[in-house]
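dumping this here before i forget
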Amino acid sequence: MSRAEVNATEDVSTDVSTSAAPPGPGAARVAEAQAAPDVPGTDSRRPSPLWTLGLFRSELVTVVRRWRTLALLGVLAAVPILIGIAVKIETRGGGTAGPSGGDGPAFISQITNNGLFLVFAGLAATLPVFLPMAIGVVAGDAIAGEANSGTLRYLLVAPAGRTRLLIAKYASVLAFCLLATLVVAASALAVGALLFPLGEVTTISGTQISFADGLVRALAIAGVVALSLTGVAALGLFISTLTGSGVAAMAATVGLLITVQILDQIPQLHAIHPYLFPHYWLSFADLLRVPVYWDQLVKNLELQALYVAVFGSAAWARFTAKDITA
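structure:
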C-alpha cells in the first residue's frame, strides 16, 4: 500500500471516530472520559487509577447537578426545619412535644432541652421514607437513565469497561447517600441551634455526656444512617440494569421499598423481618446509650453488606452480559 493510501485510510478512521461522539450534553462527559492522560510505559487502552477517579468525579458531578437531585436534597433539608418549627410552636406555652422514650420519633421530646436532639429526630423521621426514596430515585436512574437518554453506549466507548463504569456509578450513589444524610444532619443542627438551647446531652441510658461528645455521636449516627442505605442503593442499581427506562427503574425501586417497609410492619411475618433491609434501620439510637449497644448495629451493617454483595453481584452479572443498544 502506498503512503498516500495509508494517509487516506487514517483520515477516514479519524472522521469515523470523530462522528461517533454523542450529541447533546452527554458529549462533554464522553470527551472528558476519553481525554484521560496516558501513563508512559503502559498500554494506552488500560485506564489508569487517575482515569478511574476522574470517571467517578464525572458521575458524581452529573448526579449532583441534576435539578431532580437538588429538589430531593431540598426536601430532605426541609424536614428538620418543619419539625423544629412545629416543636417550637407546640412548646411555646411551656408544654412538651412528642412521646417519651428513646427510639425513633421519641427524640422529639428532648429537642426543647437540647437542640442537638433535632439531628436525631430529623434522621429518624427521614430514614423510613424520605432518605431511602431519594436514594432509590438516584440509584434507579443510574444505568437506565443513561440508556434512556442514549448516552450509555457512548460512555462505554471510553476505555473503562463495563465493570469500572458500574463501580463508578455505584460509588456515586454511595456518595449521594452520605451527602443526603449530611444535608439532613446539617439542616437539623442549624435549626436546633437557632431555635433551642445547646448543652450537655442526656443519653437514653440517663447519663450526661458533654456537648462535644454528643456532636461526635451525632456524626457517627449520620455515618451509620448512610451505611444503612447501601443495601437500597445496590438494589436500585440492579433494577436499573434490568430496563432501559429511567422512570420505570425509579418507580420499581421506590415501589419495592414501600412494599418491604409494609412487610416489615406485619406481625404475622415476623420470621422474615430480620432479613428485610429496613428492619434494623432505627438501631442507630443505640449509639446514644452508655455503654453503646452494638448488637443491633452490627446486625444492621451485616445485613446491608449482604444486600450489597447479592444485588451488587447481580447488577454486575446483568450489566456485563447486557446488549447495549442505546
